[in-house]
Amino acid sequence: AQKITQTQPGMFVQEKEAVTLDCTYDTSDPSYGLFWYKQPSSGEMIFLIYQGSYDQQNATEGRYSLNFQKARKSANLVISASQLGDSAMYFCSGSNTGKLIFGQGTTLQVKP
Amino acid sequence: GAVVSQHPSWVICKSGTSVKIECRSLDFQATTMFWYRQFPKQSLMLMATSNEGSKATYEQGVEKDKFLINHASLTLSTLTVTSAHPEDSSFYICSARSNNEQFFGPGTRLTVL
Question: Which of A24, A33, A112, B25 could pair covalently with B96 via S-S, beta carbons 3.0-4.6 A apart?
C-alpha cells in the first residue's frame, strides 16, 4: 500500500518570496510517480509537476520545482517568486498502480 | 492536454432521491476512470476505479450499492448516488487516464437537503 503525507495544513508566504511545501511518501514499489496538484477555490485540479522514481534529476516546470530526495522518501514542492494567484490548496500525490493517492493537502496563502 | 468534463457541475436534491453524475473524456478514449470524493478543506479520497466494459473496483469502505458506477463506453463513466442523504453531500471529482497521465474533471458539488 502507498501513503502520502503532507504535514503542513497551512502555510503563509510573502509575495515574491519562495516557499517549500513538504511531502513524504511511503511505498515499497521500486517504480512510482509523484505528482503535485493545485486546487484553487473553484475546485478544479491543476497539474503542476511530475517526478518519476527513476528520474535522475529533479523536475522543474517554470516557477515550480520538485526537491526529490529518494533516500528520505520526500518530494517537496518549491514555488519560487510567489504570486497572489498562487494562493490555493496544494496536494501531493503518488501512483504506482495507475491510481492516484493524495496527501492531506496544504493551504498556501500568499500575502501582498 | 486532454479535457474531461463533468455534468452537472452542481446539484441540490432531496434526501432519498438518486443523483447521477456524468464524467466524459472529450478528446480521448479512457479505458479507466477514477471517482474521488472530497469534503471541504480535506483531501481527495479515491472511491472507485471505473473500467470500461467491466465492473468497477471499489476502495475499502465504499458501498458499491450506494455508489453505482457504470462505464458503458470509452468516453463516459457515470456515478449514481442512490437514496442520497445529507451525509453524502460532498464534492465529487472524476479523472480519466490517458497515456499514463491523469486528467481531472471540474467536479460536481452535491448538496442533499
Answer: B25
Residues in chain B: 113
Interface test with A, best of B9, B23, B38 (most A CBs within 10 A): B38
For residue A71, the Cα-to-chain-centroid distance in whole angstroms is 17
Residues A21 and A87: their CA atoms lie apart, in Å, by: 13
Give the gap in angstroms from C-alpha B60 to the nearest C-alpha of chain A: 12
What is the spatial distance between Cα B8 and Cα A112, in angstroms, rounded to a whole number? 36
From the CB of residue A49, how many other CB atoms can be counted at a distance below 10 Å?
20
In one-letter notation, the amino acid at residue A88 is A
- Confidence (pLDDT) at B100: 73
**Closest CA of chain A from B79, distance in Å:** 18
**The C-alpha cell of B49 is what?**
476505479
What is the grid cell recorded at B29? 478514449
Chain-chain contact of A100 with B46 (C-beta, under 8 angstroms)? yes
Chosen for mutation from A99, A101, A106, A107 (greatest number of chain B CBs closer than 10 Å) is A99
Query: Rounded to whole angstroms, how far apart are CA atoms A46 and A37?
Result: 5
Contacts of residue A103 in chain B, CB cutoff 8 Å?
A: 43
Residue carrying C-alpha cell 481531472 = B104
pLDDT at B12: 97
pLDDT digits (tens, 9 = 90+) for B25-81: 999 998 899 999 999 999 999 999 998 888 999 999 999 999 999 998 999 999 999
Owner of C-alpha cell 497551512: A10
